[in-house]
Every structure is written in structure tokens, then in C-alpha cells.
Structure prediction request, 460 residues.
Amino acid sequence: MNLTFYLNLCALLKQNPASRESNRAFGLAHVLIKNKPFEQLVTWTDTYKETLKKPLLSETYASYLYGVTYALIVIAFVLGLLSGIGLLSYSGDEPVNVVYFMAMVAFLPLLTMTLTFFSMFRAGSMRSVLVHLSPAFWMEKALSFLPDMVQENIKAVKINPLLANWIIIQRSQLIALFFSLGLFLALIMVVVTKDIAFSWSTTLHITPEAFHHFLYALSLPWRELFPSAVPSLELIEQSQYFRLGDTLSEDMIKHAHKLGEWWKYLALMTIFYAVILRLLMLMLSIWGLKRAVKKSCLVLPGAVKLLSEINEPIISTHAYNTEAPFMEGDHLYRRTLTHLDTSYDVVQGWAMSKEALLLLSDTMKVIAPVHFEVGGMNTLAEDSEMISKSDGEVLLFVKSWEPPTMDFIDYLKELTQKVDKVIIVPVGTLQKSYVTTSKEMDIWARKLITEDDAKVWLKQ
Prediction:
């Protein structure tokens, strides 16, 4: 899911589906995430994702990556199963050496997890040797077998090295986890189906007492809960095996029925060191991958510009028309304003979208708790509902180049019966920085003079 979002964002930034004004309107419509750049990118991507061509590159890429990962997981599980069966192979002639199995389920996982932990600190490097030692690193080699068309799309996307390394780390832990599950399943299968005699043997000069202390220390995570799963000193002494010939010692044969007790210790060692610790590393890698996605998205080419367009007001280089409109003699409309307040109870727009209203309010430094679209394609019932939700002072934006119609006058009369004051603001087009001409303002003033409503004011 994280990689899918990253690839969708890359494609959208390259396609650039929204204008500067649309991006600013988007930011104004999502004020709750204003100071959260990553959440803004996520929401923006969800908004414009449908504009991408099908099939999506993210879906194609993720599908093939999932297939490669699934294949590696199956291979790892089978290798773990076969390795476990091989390590626990028992012919009946000599006991199974537990040291080999412990090395596979405890020492090897601890070593690889330590290397993984250090590789996490080097994940931002393009030449991280520790990351590239992972089997999952060769997933990108496997992607070279994809169809040519997919290859071209993949090569067109430059994945941040930080994100690429974390993808490898996360999938490596998943693959290693299934290898460990294969080892555990092999142990259970062999113990259930065979009567195995376990022993321990090493060329190093290790006394049973020293070996017991070592195993006791390793059993710290479970020895209080399952004391019977910790081999006793007596069991260790009885199961020590010396290869002095082809025959077993009489003492070991005498205590053969006790040698099978080792399986409990091996099972819990596998569960803790090979499975639980690996699960924790997997969770840590998932967390790291999420952080890598965030960092990678914020530094994408075009992301900084997009966030700037979303969060920064559009600053016009044109001056607003503050001169009094040309109106002859007694036809001057006397209820006029030269400046707007900073806030109003309601902002409405006649035949204007909510996006345009938000952009207008932001440009003119006006805030309001609600913005309503009225007129235009609205039905009479919808306009009446907007009026019922309005009160106090209402700022009503109108298109200056469209003369007032009877529908507008009827709506205005109904609105003034509900609210305390209506300020009508004729505005020009966005391309002209909303500037109105004297002629346009004169038309609106003359119409308002004929209505002469004390609650209606006109912004010059």
C-alpha cells in the first residue's frame, strides 16, 4: 500500500493534473491537515488518482513485486523445512546433535538480525553493503524478466534509494520469517513421527556444567513459564556424545528414553529466537518503511512546489479597483463599502463553485465558518435551504460581467428577510485578478438603486 501510494504520487506529479488555483482551493478545503504535508499529499493523490491512465503503474509494479516476493517466501519456507528435516535426520545408529539445530534456530537468526539492525542505519546510502547482502536484494534482478512495456514504465520511475533499501529490508524479514517457520514445522513433524534420541557433541573442550549455564542463559525468555523446557544438568551429562567408535556408550543407551526431552527446549528456542524476534524485526522494518515513504514523498520532484501551491495564498500583482464607479447625478448608490471586514458569518457565491468561493475568500483575506453555492444549477428548494442556514452578515460574491437577473433579485429579497446584512461583491475573472470595470459596477449599482433595500450594501 505504501509503495502503491508513492508510485501514484510520482505519476500524478509528472502528469500535473491540477492548476495553481485548483491546488490552492484544495488546501483551503482541507484546513484540518494544513500543517501535515504528508497527509496533504495522500489526500491530494486520492483526489486526482482517477485521472491516471489505466492500468495504473502502481498496480502493475506491485503485482509483479508481490509475485516475486511470494515465490521467494515459498522457496524460503521449503528450504527451512528441508533444512530442519536434514538437521534432525535420525537413522537410529547415533543420536541427533542438538548443537547444529540450535545454531540454525538461534545463532544464525541473531547474527542476521544484528546485521539487519545495522543496515537500517545505512538504509539511506545507495551503496549499503549490508542491505545488498540480503536475498531480497535480488528481487530487482528478477524484475528484469518482466515484459518490455512494464520494464519501460518501471525504468521511468526513479525510486528513492532510501525507500528501495527499506523495501528490501522489510521483505527480507518476511522471507526469513517463513524460513524459520519451515524449521519449526520440521521439528514438530520429526518429533511427532519419530522416536528421536538427542545429544550434544563438540570438538571444543566444554564441560557439561559450562554448557548447562550457557543453555540456562539462553532460556531466559521462557524458563520461568516453562521450567520443564530447560534441560537439567543431569540430562546434559547423560546426553553428551563422544565419537570414539561406531557404538554408543552403555550409559547413553541406558538413559535413551530421557534423551528425547530435548525437543521442548529446541521448540521454544525456535519460537522465541527464530519466530518472535523475527516478527519484532519485521514490525520494525514495516515502521521504517512507512517513514521512508514519507521522507521519499516529501523530496519528490514537484512535491515541494505542490505543497507550496496548496498552502501559500495566490498573490496577485494587479491592484484591486478601489475607485468609485461612474454613476450620474442622483443615481449614485449610497450604501457602499470600500473595504471588506476580515470575517463574516456566511460567504455565498452566485453561480460559483465552492472551490471558486474558497479561492476568492483566500485572495481577499476574508474568513467565514461556512461557504454556500447559490443560484446557477441549484433548484429553488436548494437555495431556500441555503437561506435557512444563513444568518448575521452575509458576503455575497457575484460575477461582475453578468448583469443581475430577476432570479438573483428574487433570491436577494428572500435572503434579506432572513439575515441582518448582505454585502454584494462583484468580481471579475481570475485571470484579471478579480478586478471589475467601472461600467460593470455601474450596472450593478443602478439595479440595486431600483430595489433600494436598506440591508443590501455594495462593495466598490
Notes: Strands lie at 96-97, 198-199, 336-337, 346-350, 371-374, 393-399, 421-427, 456-459.
